[in-house]
């Protein structure tokens, strides 16, 4: 008989479960803050010029948060 061995990422990189949860919570907090900062940029609350605020909103919305900030 032929046995097939598979190696999952969990087997290759054994990480404690609480470290995975800590990473997930940290990433969720980062995304939430990026969305809030994008919101403030698009209301013109950060810089004195709207062009800088738009670029900041694009950076935090599209690049960091992962949604289009031009809707």
List keywords for this structure.
71 residues; mainly alpha; 3 helices; elongated
Question: Can you put this structure into words, describing what you see?
Answer:
With 71 residues, this protein is mostly helical. The model has no long low-confidence stretch (mean pLDDT 82). The chain is built from three helices and no strands. Helix 2 runs antiparallel to helix 3. The chain has helices spanning 9-12, 17-42, 50-65.
DSSP helix fraction:
55-70%
Largest sheet: none
Order of helices and strands: HHH
* Measured distance between first and last alpha carbons: 59 Å
> Which stretches of 5+ consecutive residues score pLDDT under 50?
none
Present the secondary structure layout.
Blueprint lengths: L8 H4 L4 H26 L7 H16 L6
